[in-house]
Amino acid sequence: MNEATLAPGRRLSQIRQELGLSQRRVAELAGLTHSAISTIEQDKVSPAVSTLQKLLTVYGLSLSEFFSETVKNTPPKIVIEPQELIDIGSQGVSLKLIHNGNASHNLAMLLETYEPGSTTGEKIRHPGEETGTLLEGEITLTIGGQCYQLHAGQSYVIDTGLPHSFSNTSNRVCRIVSAHTPANF
Questions:
Q1: Per-residue model confidence (pLDDT) at position 69
Q2: Which single residue of 32, 107, 159, 172 could bond 36 by disulfide (Cβ 3.0 to 4.6 Å)?
Q3: How distant is the alpha carbon of residue 40 from its chain centre?
Q4: Phi and psi at residue 80, in whole multiples of 5°?
Q5: Residue ranges of the alpha helices (H) in the chain?
Q6: Mean model confidence pLDDT for the chain
């Protein structure tokens, strides 16, 4: 079984052990509790995107690096099937990463689905820029302490270096297509 096919918690545990870090040390570095690290690594809970981002920062990995398979001597794919998209979301938020196996790509694209009442959680922050268009529903984008209520058909462009989050406070599903640089957030 290759690394990308491991359950996320088991993969995080494997990476932590390869780096020679204890759960307690990772919890300290990531600003999380030891019990949170333990339950995540046992796949008892799926971490929120913001929590996963904290852990990957400690491990020196981006979200796209964590979820993409290492493909050696294989040319990047041109056509990616729906079942090949890499879902990096959790807890009512589906963030499907479109990835073709090219480790040196400059742009990343996500198909995002937010169930009613779902949120990305704590404010996310990473260097770069993101642009997106709401295809369906509505979402509250909070960035730099300012809230913006967006509806289907509207688009946004943000500096992802500023703390930001997305929340669906409506009773309808929200779908967004977004792209960001750099590709390794």
A1: 55
A2: 32
A3: 15
A4: -115, 125
A5: 8-18, 23-30, 34-41, 49-59, 63-67
A6: 84
pLDDT digits (tens, 9 = 90+) for 30-53: 888 888 898 888 888 888 777 888
Instruction: State which amino acid sits at residue 99.
Output: H
Considering only residues 148 and 3, tell me which one the structure prediction assigns the higher pLDDT: 148
User: What Cα–Cα distance (Å) separates residue 130 from each residue in 15, 102, 122, 157?
Assistant: 28, 20, 18, 6
C-alpha Rg value of the chain to the nearest Å:
17
Q: Which residues, including other chains, have CB under 8 Å from residue 168's CB and lie 6 or more apart?
A: 114, 115, 116, 117, 118, 119, 137, 138, 139, 140, 174
CB-based contacts of 141: which residues, under 8 Å, 6+ apart? 147, 148, 150, 156, 158, 164, 165, 166
Helix 23-30 / helix 34-41 crossing angle, nearest 10 deg: 120
User: Rounded CA gap, 79 and 38, in Å?
Assistant: 38
Measured CA to CA, the distance from residue 52 to residue 69 in angstroms comes to: 18
138 vs 124: CA distance, rounded Å: 19
Q: Spell out the residues 6+ positions from residue 88 whose beta carbon is closer than 8 angstroms to its own.
A: 49, 52, 63, 66, 67, 95, 96, 97
Torsion sign over Cα 18, 21, 26, 29: negative
Side chain identity at residue 177, one-letter code: V
Strand order in the sheet with 129-136: 86-87, 93-98, 108-114, 174-181, 129-136, 155-159
